[in-house]
Write a structure and sequence with these properties.
2 domains; five-stranded mixed β-sheet; alpha+beta; 31% strand; 16 strands; elongated; 303 residues; Immunoglobulin-like
């Protein structure tokens, strides 16, 4: 009985294997080396969007449909086929081979396109270059996902389709509620609130405050004496000494790492002014999120 069960298992396994559809080397394919499974990725520095198109049976049709949501119209200037233009209800579509306007646009991005592509066996597409060019200058909302559908058909009418999802998270930014332009603060005048808000939808990975050269010598010593390195850079994520020294003004360590919204309070400058001489003191603030997106600004105080 046991032997019979083993034989049956072997036969079933063999049958399952024989039913598995063999890979046809002549079938067209769409591959993304940096993301083989076409999982959702973040539109961030370093993202590799290179797509390889293979069509042993020679390309006959090649389209790229872009689900851009409310940004559908941004692709229209690069599409001449009216039915392929984007609208509030339709996604724009690039006919890579037969639309000369779309082809010219893609050629400008370094991608092969146009009538000369028909009959070719190889092509490529850069999703990042395409998306970033179309969205340049657009105030894209945080937490937006774009879907790109690539479709190819060869001259034997065999085809392949792939869907890529690219997510957008806004870059970090700084806000100063009562000093939107980050004008120089005169420490001799009436004291104003000096809280700088740091917003990082992609979560904070690095946050530093650096007192630049040329600052008042006593202020420079005050900062350097409170950092682990003895320098003028306050690393609010990793410098425990600085974190303890400025705990009443700046968040640090676990209270800043991975957060999306923190505040930096520079009110300590009003206490320090009594030890300072006439000077202009510049702090450079830099934040980097987990996606590699960053922002930099400066806070200036004069006496």
């Amino acid at each position: 009985m046991k032997r019979l069960s083993i034989i049956l298992c072997v036969l079933l396994a063999a049958a399952a294997f024989s039913c598995k559809k063999p890979v046809d080397p002549n079938w067209p394919s769409i591959t993304w080396a940096a993301n083989p499974n076409f999982g959702q990725v973040e539109l961030a520095p370093g993202l590799d969007g290179a797509i390889a198109i293979t069509a042993p049976g020679k390309l006959d049709l090649f389209t790229v449909e872009l689900d851009l949501g409310e940004y559908a119209n941004v692709a229209n200037p690069y599409i001449s086929i009216a039915s392929n233009k984007g609208s509030s209800s339709d996604s724009p579509k690039f006919d890579v081979i037969d639309d000369p306007v779309a082809a010219s646009f893609l050629n400008g991005l370094g991608m092969p396109a146009g009538a000369s592509l028909r009959g070719k066996t190889l092509a490529n597409l850069d999703l990042v270059a395409l998306l970033e060019t179309l969205l340049k200058g657009q105030p894209v909302k945080n937490n937006t996902t774009f879907t790109i559908i690539i479709n190819i058909v060869d001259q034997a009418k065999m085809g392949a389709t792939a869907k890529a999802k690219i997510h957008f998270t806004s870059a970090p930014s700084f806000f100063w509620d009562n000093n939107a332009k980050f004008d120089v603060v005169d420490l001799n005048n009436t004291q104003i609130a000096c809280k700088i808000r740091v917003n990082a939808p992609g979560k904070i990975k690095e946050l530093t405050v650096k007192l630049e050269d040329g600052a008042d010598p006593k202020l420079m010593s005050y900062i350097k004496n409170r950092t682990a390195s003895g320098g003028s850079l306050i690393d609010l994520v990793t410098d425990e000494k600085a974190g303890a020294a400025f705990k009443d003004y700046f968040p640090s360590g676990a209270t800043v790492r991975g957060k999306i919204d923190v505040a930096l309070d520079f009110s300590f400058m009003y206490a320090q002014r009594f030890d300072m001489g006439p000077s202009t003191n510049i702090f450079t603030l830099k934040v980097v999120d987990v996606n590699g997106k960053d922002a930099t600004t400066q806070v200036k105080f004069k006496l």
